[in-house]
Specification:
This protein is mainly α. Helices cover 81% and strands 0% of the residues. The chain contains 8 helices and no strands. Helix 1 packs parallel to helix 5 and helix 2 crosses helix 4.
Length: 160
């Protein structure tokens, strides 16, 4: 709640009208720490000798970033995006305090509908959200299974 109120005070003090831009700024402010934590953890595991080898083989700085660094941090970037999306999607307080009258993000819209009572629309939205989460989980598991990640994890856990 403190982040939502402080963002509202910041926007009103700066003379900004609440709009989609303030919602984006609020959610970026909220999620940037999580993204930085995940990506930084991956960046610390990068091996500088691979980058140096690419430079020795004639790659430009842009080529090293595109062909060596980005493929190595891509999984962390995807995880950071998913984490930021889920945290932002679930954060009602920032959405409530950073949105104006004209726009209503989904958590604020659902809250507004819940004040009038549970309707079939709320049940449908909840069902769609649960189905999407289950579908994404199953897709992630199938991809991990095909890449052998699940087998590696269970083999390592059994001491193989």
């Amino acid at each position: 709640m403190a982040l939502g109120v402080s963002l509202l005070l910041l926007f009103s003090t700066a003379g900004l009208t609440l709009s989609p831009v303030t919602i984006i700024v609020g959610h970026v402010t909220f999620c940037i720490a999580y993204v930085a934590f995940v990506v930084r953890a991956r960046l610390e595991t990068l091996r500088p000798d691979v980058e140096e080898a690419a430079r020795d083989l004639g790659a430009t700085l842009f080529g090293v970033v595109r062909l060596v660094i980005l493929p190595q941090i891509a999984p962390a970037a995807i995880v950071a995006f998913a984490l930021a999306f889920l945290l932002s999607f679930d954060d009602f307080v920032v959405s409530f305090f950073a949105s104006g009258v004209d726009i209503s993000p989904l958590p604020v819209y659902i809250y507004g509908m819940l004040r009038l009572g549970v309707t079939p629309e709320i049940n449908a939205i909840g069902t769609i959200m649960i189905a999407a989460a289950l579908l994404l989980g199953v897709i992630g598991f199938v991809v991990a299974l095909r890449r052998g990640i699940v087998k590696q994890m269970t083999g390592a856990a059994q001491g193989d």
